[in-house]
Design goal:
The complex is a heterotrimer of chains A (about 140), B (about 180) and C (about 110).
Chain A lengths: L5 H23 L8 H19 L3 H31 L24 H31 L1
Chain B lengths: L1 H20 L3 H21 L3 H23 L12 H25 L13 H5 L2 H5 L4 H9 L1 H21 L7
Helix pairs in contact in B: 1-2, 2-3, 7-8
Chain C lengths: L1 H19 L3 H22 L23 H31 L4 H7 L2
Helix pairs in contact in C: 1-2, 2-3
Classes of the chains: A mainly alpha (about 140), B mainly alpha (about 180), C mainly alpha (about 110).
Amino acid sequence: MKGMTLIVKKTTQLLAGMIFMYGIYVIVHGHLTPGGGFAGGVVIAGSLILVTLAFGGDFLKLLKEETGTTIIESLATIMVILIAVSGFLFGTKIFFNNYLPKGIVGHLVSAGVLPLYNIFVGTEVAASIFIIFLSLIIFREESKQ
Amino acid sequence: MELSVSIITGFMIIGALYAIHAKDLLSSVIACGLVGYSLVICFLLLKAPDLAIVQIVVDTVTLIIMVAVVLDSSREESFLKLDTQGYIAAITVVLLIAILLYFFTASIQSLDVLGKSSLRMAKYYIEGAASKTGSANLVTGVVFDFRGYDTMGEAVVLVTAVLGVLTILRIKGKK
Amino acid sequence: MIAYIMCFILFFVGLYGVITRRNLIKIAVSLSIMEISTFLFFALIGYIDGGVAPIVDPAHPAKVYVDPLPQALVLTAIVIGLATTAMMMAVIIRLYRKYGTFDIREIRNLRG
């Protein structure tokens, strides 16, 4: 697919990195400020969609991106379930337990397993929305040929 | 508080009525995005900042997908006259609204006034939640610790939806 | 009480759109409007007078917080609504490529 004009490309080069960093900030501080895994994941997907729309890309490159993103999404879902199961092995023998030390309320490293949950759920949501967008573009390119 | 939420919901009703009756499909889709953005203001008035962040980004992505679909195909709706099926649909709507109105009035008499807590479990979730889960954000603590099964189910539903979209939009299979 | 009534009127507007419209895009838009009215109703139930947003500040704890449970339920529901709308759009594109129209009556006559 074709990219856009020069002004859009230059603006995207300045903005896309900052949006990505903001998404990571919202995910990591999910247990201190409003936000969390779902909101940060969709923000990261938004920055990836912006880069794809502004710069375009030929057909085979988009296909390779789609394959790689499906692998990342499946791995993130497996990690979410593994963290829930790991309550059996370490800590008390209860499924889905919050067993790491809780720390002081308000510090960055606190709340047990919750930051790990936030990171993996955020990755999975970002990959899902990016795959939905990429498959729409690939369908459109394929039906034009 | 209740007055401002009611006024914004009145704007949402007007926008929704326009979205249904518009002749141009692109205007209809943009009006749907506008109704979603007004919901963000309602969430901020009802003291729910988590929901406001999620709703604003999700509505933007929904708007992008819908505009991409509409611009790639035809953009106008063809109007034909009412025939028998149109009359049957109109009568069905009137019947359904009458039945639902009865249940709605029965339920609104059992809800308390806006502001007094209608749910009795509120204080059990709030007191001691900060020390039991260790997180300062109570909504994240409830989502991932007290009701973790719902979050696991939601992750699985997202994977299933992506699998469905990938299967539907496939033209050539693997040889 | 008025806020609940307006919320239900929005739900009825969406229901009317789903049943009487013939264009596929309008059906998808009306379904999205019904979901939005449900989210608003949940957030209205959980509101407590004089409460603040449910973020605990250890230095100055507030007296009354807004109920966090309905907010947790709506948080999950918003993202699932996005997945449902995306899947409906995929089906709509497929139907348009095959039959050339968005109208459900003509698709039913052309099918086969």
